[in-house]
Design a protein that fits this description.
This protein is mostly helical. Helix content is 70%, strand content 0%.
Length: 101
């Protein structure tokens, strides 16, 4: 998996929308692991409520209505980066699958 693409895309999104370091980390975890809130909170050693508060804050800052929209934003950013001549590879093949919620 090409985690460097995800990290760069999340970093750029973080700068655009002025996300905190923790919010950026949570956005990356959402992309890397694609698990539900309980599993993600356990991975990050935080409560589910804290995780939900961070995700809600990210959604407000990015004017996103769901976690899927956040993931789509990252995928679009990766696609834009790749179409800029970085490498002609489909980013979709490299991203983890997100379980339906």
């Amino acid at each position: 998996m090409r985690t460097d693409y995800i990290s760069k895309a999340c970093g750029r999104i973080a700068k655009i929308y002025k996300l905190t370091n923790r919010e950026t980390e949570i956005l990356q975890y959402l992309c890397f692991y694609g698990c539900n809130n309980i599993e993600l909170a356990e991975r990050m050693f935080i409560s589910v409520k804290t995780l939900k508060n961070h995700i809600h804050s990210i959604q407000i800052k990015t004017q996103s209505t769901s976690t899927r929209n956040l993931l789509a934003m990252v995928i679009r950013r990766i696609s834009e980066d790749l179409s800029g001549g970085v490498e002609a590879v489909s980013p979709m093949a490299e991203l983890p699958r997100v379980a339906a919620r």
